[in-house]
Design a protein that fits this description.
Largest sheet: 7 strands, mixed
Bound molecules: adenosine-5'-diphosphate
Strand order of the largest sheet: 3-2-1-4-5-10-11
Structural class: alpha/beta
Length: about 325
């Protein structure tokens, strides 16, 4: 491998910059050239490709977001788009590509591999919704950000003796909700993987708690269930207890990456380059059973994990 390309795709996540930095510096230490592809697959098709050196990634390990920007790209879902993407790689001499993103970005990487470009995927998403790994870049920062916000909301909720529904991100997965629910000592945690839409159970729970003298009732609701505002209105009407909804939103996606996200993303970035240097392709890196591992991309995409039965690394 002479030249490694690196791109970030799908939703941004804190720690992506640490991964980019590790890819660039590991590749340079092995005598390879590095090109940064901006705006994911969209930038690949538009040739938004920049040379990177050691200094290009100075002062970024502590920054949230991604210095390469990220985008979604419909054209890349088509056969023509994928063939053109591979052509662009060849035109710029990129013979190995590191794709940092989620499942969708992995599928794109798989297509490039089919077109002869060696690819390795790194799990970059705050949602932890990639089955082959118990850790994704950005999750740790996002849950810590959400946890701190929920602690603050709880103060007001207790002072006013209210019920609070706090909606956290996660797309269709409940990992952020589950972890915050535990970390914040929530009374109820609503997970898309398990929710039965029975609000009466929640209402009964609130009434019972109030009878037992609890001053607040914190419900963590996952984005995949949503409708927190209308849920709050129905709960207030049924219980007579003032109920407010707070939707945390994008504040969970930004900010300085945690120590864990910086370190794990750095290790994964280095591992991606090592795999490419060994001539491997169509692989994805994960964290499983207490170690960094890599899997065949299509095997990884076919895996499933169950939020309630799984033991995940803490
Ligand atoms: P994530 O990577 O976080 O799951 P998306 O699902 O939005 O985010 O995927 C990011 C990008 O990856 C898409 O905009 C598209 O360009 C590309 N992509 C997604 N699915 C496919 C697919 N099946 N084939 C090729 N490219 C895909």
């Amino acid at each position: 491998i002479n030249t490694i390309g690196v791109l970030t795709s799908g939703g941004d996540a804190p720690g992506m910059n640490a991964a980019i930095r590790a890819v660039v510096r590991t590749a340079i230490s092995k005598g390879m050239n590095v090109k940064g592809i901006q705006r994911g697959y969209a930038g690949l098709l538009n040739e938004e490709i920049v040379d990177m050196n050691s200094r290009s990634v100075s002062e970024i390990i502590q920054r949230g977001g991604t210095i390469l920007y990220t985008a979604r790209c419909e054209e890349f879902r088509t056969e023509e788009g994928q063939a053109r993407g591979a052509e662009m790689c060849r035109k710029h001499g990129i013979d190995g590509l590191v794709v940092i993103g989620g499942d969708g970005s992995y599928r794109g990487a798989g297509k490039l591999a089919e077109h002869g470009i060696n690819t390795v995927g790194l799990p970059g998403t705050i949602d932890l919704d990639i089955a082959c790994t118990d850790y994704t870049i950005g999750f740790d920062t996002a849950v810590n950000t959400a946890m701190e916000a929920i602690d603050k909301i709880r103060d007001t909720s207790t002072s006013h003796e209210r019920c609070s529904i706090i909606e956290v991100m996660g797309r269709n997965a409940g990992y952020i909700a589950l972890w915050c629910g535990i970390a914040n000592g929530a009374e109820d945690i609503l997970l898309p993987e398990r929710y039965d839409c029975n609000e009466q159970t929640i209402i009964n729970h609130i009434i019972e708690h109030r009878k037992n003298g609890k001053k607040h009732h914190i419900i963590i609701n996952a984005e995949g269930i949503g409708h927190s505002t209308s849920m709050a209105k129905r709960i207030e009407a049924a219980t007579g207890i003032e109920t407010r909804a707070s939707i945390l939103g994008y504040m969970q996606r930004g900010g300085m990456p945690s120590c864990k996200d910086r370190v794990y993303a750095s290790i994964m970035g280095a591992k991606a380059v090592e795999l490419l240097a060994e001539g491997k392709s169509n692989r994805v890196v994960g964290w499983r059973g207490g170690e960094f591992v890599d899997y065949d991309l299509y095997e990884a995409l076919a895996m499933q994990k169950d939020i309630c039965e799984e033991e995940y690394a803490i």
